[in-house]
Amino acid sequence: MGGKKISRRRLIGTAAVAVAALGSPPFVRTSHAAGKLTLGMWDHWVPGANDALRRLVDEWADANRVEVAIDFITSIGNKNALTARAEARARVGHDIMAHPTWQVAVHHRQLEPLDDIVAEVEKAHGRYAETAMFLCRFDGTWKGIPAPTGTHTFPMVSRLDLLKQHAGVDLQQVFPAARDQRKKDLVEGWTYDAFLGHAEKLHRAGRPFANPIAPTGDGQNWLAPLFLSFGSVMVNAKNEIAVDSEETRRALEYMVRLAKFMPSDVHSWDDASNNDWLVSGRGACIFNPPSAWSAARREKPEIAAQLWHHDTPRGPNGRFRACLPYFWGIWDFARNKSAAKELMRFMCGKEAARRLVAASQGYDLSLLPSFLDFDTWAEAGPPKGTTYNYPTRGDETVIVAGYPAPAAMAADIYNRGLITQLVTRVTQGAESIEKAIAWARRELEGYVRG
Amino acid sequence: MVDAATGAAGISVGARRPSLHKLFQRKSTIAFLMALPLILLISLLVVYPAFYSLHLATLNKSMERFVGLGNFEFLFKRQTFWMVVEQSVLFAVTAVVFKALIGFFVAHFVHAIPSKGQRKWRGMLLVPWVIPPAMSTLAWFWLFDPSYSAFNWIFTKVGLGTIPFLGDAYWARFSVILVNVWFGAPFFMIMYLAALKSVPEQLYEAAAIDGASWWQRLWYVTLPMMRNIISITVLFSLIVTFANFDIVRVLTAGGPIDQTHVFATWAFKLGIESGDIPLGACVSLFMLPILGLSAVFILRDINKRGNEA
């Protein structure tokens, strides 16, 4: 019992140090961050893209002495979205989770605010595209941040030879691989009316245009811009049901005519069917990111050498292209929020974006317009510059399917495939346009349920 | 007094011991203890989720507010819901009828095969049932594939037109029912075969002496002897087919235009894919009274016949 006596002053001092040590957050900014961090990332289509992401994360982890575990989760069968739902319900899971398009809206109540990171990134690299704010900002707070991988748009991918031979269109002339070489009159002539004529000629030549008219991602991401280019919206920005309009009637009438020049089986296509269709050489054009071209490079190089990515047609209301962005979010139940934020800061840098774009062969797009000037898109080929117009270079407005409805409503419109079902009813179900619109109105009334 | 007290205590302890011992020796206690792990497992994996889904079904879309039966009220006003009810009934009843018929006749054919060669036939016919349905349905999906269907390739080769197996609502319904029948018929076959083997041969001999035809033997001997097994297999299959998910999910995902959705796939679409868990829970719970009623009627009939016997 003859231990050393501790004075009252010393005891209080030691206790104060201990309390301060326990009370401070475990991870602070910069190299003091440590511990474990788990990431649930989207499993990339492009071979090698996951490795590039892992390498970048490992570099950051080594420098910051953080142990990082990455799970790459496929989007096939919505597995990534389902995993996020399960984690949100169980309130346990990855610290950072990649969320496709509308899922930040679905989970925003359980996501950490990221205003500080967004402010830093925008200060350094300029403002994010409007789409990012539309999908990530709730009640004035950013709940997600555009992810460095996964974001893609849906341009048209067409066969240069077939369009020239059967429709008389030289796509490299209309949409060259240099922004300053575009001729306004040629681009202006690329309209849905003109495209209907091209589709008819291609159909007659036995190499039709085709894309799914089914509630899949690809189905929605060409029909939603088409409807908007005719001025048709399902629900407007004030959350009012607006499907019953002359614009919707015009869009549906157009689709009835266009569907006659498309293969009859497009109503049962999935997201791979249009890629297979183009790569097999049976079709002349589709709407798709460069994954079809990447697949063709491996399987049919002679077809890949004829593929050109370019703008969508223009309608009476303008020219629109769908985007399927990916976001990163930090769960409010994440165990290592400070390290997660540090990694996000690192991954939002321009060098990280450049390396990831190169690794994905240009598939990944940034929602920072200042990050769309990398050489990857101009150099990709053959044919050289095929993906130059994959980031928007002209007058296209980038939208997400469901826009301009408020995020929660738009998520329902997208997740339930409303537009594709509306089109299917008139093009395949042989329903009248009026009856189909009445059906859509009733469906939308159901989505409003609080 | 002390002795007496001790004696009384001794008697009471002695009396308790044999009763506890007796309790553990009772057949019902042993049976209960042996079934206890299963009871606990079922409680954990079935009873708890069932009550939890009941609770979920009473919440609003964002799961923040109690709405009582409001979700059911909303559901009953939806056109798509009644379409799914109609499709589920059509899918389950048609598939079960065909599975039962095919199973019954195939069982007869296999029963007629000499026992030496019967085993390999039984094994081969069971193959569709033992392959995981998600996997076999994927093979069917490729056979029906919109662009590269093997069936359509053959039809084209023989000069026939192609069929939109998965693109047309009626063909898509036909396809999901066909795959379900293909998958489920072997189960009926093996159950009916077992029942056929248990029919006493003397009954057929007596019928033959009485001059009964093949049809009369089937109608008056085989069918009455198989009635219970037919009822049980039909009930079991009806429950499983009503709750089917994988075949429809893999083959059509409920399309085109929702016309092949059954309760489970629509509940998944609403609850998991669209984030409306309470409504999804309502749809899945809607199956409960339908299946419960069928179970009551069929099992009551079996009990009645059992008592008559």
Compact summary:
Chain A is an alpha/beta fold.
Structure explained in plain terms:
The complex is a heterodimer of chains A (450) and B (309). Residues 19-33 of chain A have low confidence and may be disordered. Chain A has 2 domains: 30-151 and 325-373, Periplasmic binding protein-like II (D-Maltodextrin-Binding Protein, domain 2, 3-Layer(aba) Sandwich); 152-323 and 380-447, Periplasmic binding protein-like II (D-Maltodextrin-Binding Protein, domain 2), CATH 3.40.190. Helix content of chain A is 45%, strand content 12%. Chain A contains 21 helices and 13 strands. Chain A has a 5-stranded mixed β-sheet. In chain A, strands 7-11-13 form a 3-stranded mixed β-sheet, with helices on one face. In chain A, β4 and β5 form a beta hairpin. Chain A is globular and about 95 Å long. In chain B, α8 crosses α10 and α10 (214-242) packs antiparallel against α13 (277-308). Chain B has 2 domains: 2-56, no CATH class; 73-308, MetI-like fold (Orthogonal Bundle), CATH 1.10.3720.10. Chain B is flat. Chain B is mainly alpha-helical.
Summary tags:
heterodimer, A: 450 residues, alpha/beta, D-Maltodextrin-Binding Protein, domain 2, 2 domains, five-stranded mixed β-sheet, three-stranded mixed β-sheet, 21 helices, 45% helix, B: 309 residues, mainly alpha, MetI-like fold, 80% helix, disordered N terminus
Using the CA coordinates, give the radius of gyration of chain A: 25 Å
- The dominant shape of chain B is flat
CATH fold name of the largest domain in chain B: MetI-like fold
Task: Give helix % range of chain B.
Answer: over 70%
Task: Examine the secondary-structure arrangement and name the CATH architecture of the largest domain in chain A.
Answer: 3-Layer(aba) Sandwich
Shape of chain A: globular
Count of helices of chain A? 21
- Please indicate the count of domains of chain A: 2
Q: What is the CATH T-level topology of the largest domain in chain A?
A: D-Maltodextrin-Binding Protein, domain 2
Instruction: Give the helix/strand class of chain A.
Output: alpha/beta
**The CATH homologous superfamily of the largest domain in chain A:** Periplasmic binding protein-like II
Named at the architecture level, the CATH assignment of the largest domain in chain B is Orthogonal Bundle
Q: Count of DSSP helices of chain B?
A: 13
